[in-house]
Fold this protein.
Amino acid sequence: MASALTEESNSPIGGLTLYGPSLSRPTALYFPRAELRKNTILNVIIWFHGFYVSSLKEIFHFYSGNEPDKNGDARLRQSVLNANQDVVLVAPFLGYVPPGASEQKKAAAVTEAEKDAVAKADKAHAVGVNRYVSAEGELGEGKNGLKYVNEVLKAIAVYRDQSDSAPAPKLGRLYLACHSGGGEGMLDVVGSLDSYSDNLKECWGFDCLYSNRYAGMARGNPKVKFYLYYGQGSSFDRAYEIHAARYGSIKGRVATDLANALVAPATTTKMPGVDDDSRAFRSVQAIQQDKPTAASYESFRQDLDATLGDKVKFKAYLKKNKLNLMGHYTVPATLMEPRIRQSLGKATASP
């Protein structure tokens, strides 16, 4: 049979980009070096995009001018390429969710036509959310995560050898990563990997804190590390819950049961440090001993951690200092590359 994967022609970026619209879940793939497709063992990152990705190819849309929060550019391929690791990026398309009517438009709607337009936009949004959630949930049912990975590996083999009988590469180290509404899909798939559960090493969340499931999922999978970054787009309620569960309280309680959940506010480059694991995930007590410069990740954490034990104060601090947090798309666009580099490092492909 013909390969289910087709190569992107005239790619604006190095490496090899493939699209598989006919797979059980339409999928985009990126190899930072084309020769990786020949490997018998492949490290894989599965990426779960957010609501407002309009099509399969939009997942990897390339913008020559990178303004993540203006153009929705998560810089996925650039991050994988620049991290210089042996890993393949696999991105299933979960469906497009059109935005609902803004609060401004709702408030301004006076005529029947304007009110109808608002209602139509909100209905389209609700329908899109239902389709998207259904797609996420389907990947997380039974052994569907395992089946999906096997389907992708087989498709790579057929593309590589142009033969149905081509042996599929084995799965090496597996990483699940998400942005925005993709967080639920990432968490769902953790439970549907079956025999690939031991291959799963880490889950990465980029401004995706809307669910209250992260702490429970981390506790239920103690061998998997969860790296979670929250910026301007996350729920500050959810950010407080996971932050407090991980770090405890400045007043003395030290959290010990969530050591595999590594949580950090994604501070901007004006307050640098979150891109460095040795700085980003230190305990409350360790950071309180620092004497940081006024504009640093440590200074932000000291002030934020001082509010632990009081969700209202924690949320108020984040709202007041929101401009010191990265924008919604800037979080993955900035932090995906150092996450790949630090997590994979010199790791071998074997699980």
